[in-house]
What we know:
Blueprint: H1 5-8, H2 41-47, H3 58-71, E1 84-86, H4 87-97, H5 120-128, E2 138-140, E3 142-146, E4 150-153, E5 174-178, E6 183-189, E7 195-199, E8 204-208, E9 212-215, H6 217-224, E10 229-232, E11 236-241, E12 245-250, E13 254-256, E14 267-276, E15 279-288, E16 293-295, H7 302-310, H8 328-337, H9 347-353, E17 356-359, H10 365-372, E18 380-383, E19 386-393, E20 399-412, E21 415-427, H11 439-442, E22 445-448
Organism: Selenomonas ruminantium
Signal peptide: 1-28
Amino acid sequence: MKKKFLTAVSGCCFGLCAMMFSPLPTFAADTIAITDQRATPSYWTKHTINGDKVLLTQQEISTLNRTMREKSKTLVDLAAYNIHQSAATVKEMILAAQQDYRGEETPGEAYDANGKQVPTAHFKQVKANCNLEGLTGNITGQYALVTERTNMRLLPTADNYFDDVTCLHYDSMQATALDPAEPVIILHKSKDGAFAFCQARHYMGWVSLGALAVTDRKHWQRYVKPKDFLVVTANKKEVAVGGAWKILFQMGSIIPLAANKMQEHNTWLAYVPVEVNGVLTEVQVKIANDDSIHKGFLPCTPNNFIRQSMKFLGDEYGWGGMDDSVDCSSYTADIYRSMGIELPRDADQQELAMPKSLKFDGLTTSQRFAKVKEAPVGALLFKPGHVMMYLGQDANGNPLVIHSASSYFTFDKGKKQKHYIRKVLVSDLHYQNGKAVETIDGLTSAGFCAK
């Protein structure tokens, strides 16, 4: 996640602040949220022509994923990843992962969880914790699995770096969140031994070693390319591990099966990775065969785009996957992944990776509305720093979207007012950003995979 968009795009998912020392202002926060029948999946599935038509087969999706990896700077084919890297290459990866903190000697305007300015000494200590001097010669990575939902950080620290004293929910050190059973490659470890620098399928950054289990390639591949697996189709899914604890999965998570056939009591037998002294132990768990999971990916259909998107409706906005939730781009990525489509993590990279797109440059407002209506259901609408999913036209011909939003602005007699939303909602394209630009006029493209 890139902190530089926080002030530049305050009308969308990168403009997230909550009052820290007083309650959140009670603005008319839901006035852009549509809450009538148009915020139900049945409304849209009834309005969608050929809604159950399969748009892409899984073989076509595999080809699509390969094409998007070639266009993206962040997507990686882990199965083909070379774990042998030079020290110089890994060093550059670590520096690149720092994003806006790269080359900085001070944290800038950064505050901790108590609202106190982060000392420069702390920032320098965190940077030194990258242990760059420990990179020498050739590096051989380690295969590992994520054992619990955990954060991936730009630098090796769990400390918050809020860039406004009133901001509780935007942590500029947060890269993304990783779900259990995610395969990663460990390329380096922090000086304090608490973090590992990892390459995941869609991002790289620092992960707590306590959430990782090292294993061999054979067991690791079971999670990279499982033969038989469950896909989490609910917005969130808790799985009990041996009756001792529960682990949280989010939509699109893949859980390898230990047995291809249904077990007694209508359950599936699956593997979950557990860390014991840093090493993998696989535990078999029983998962009820309900509507929160699906064997294999869901068919890629317009109606499944609709149904999957609506499962998050009303959920809290979670910057970088914080608060066990989704921001704008992890929301769209989770929807697409439930059908097997691997999108990049961030909105700007998603836009670049889209195989098909409609451009809005040079169009008037009326032309933009006409262009949006050409997009298929499930298309992604992009504006700087934000992404939304297109639902289609309502009965009055208004194009509507669903998205994980943080805020919008209103203007009264020249006075600007910011309204916080921080949730997944259905809206039209009229809401404004901090420069009084309606969303329709800020769109850069509509991207989609099939039509």
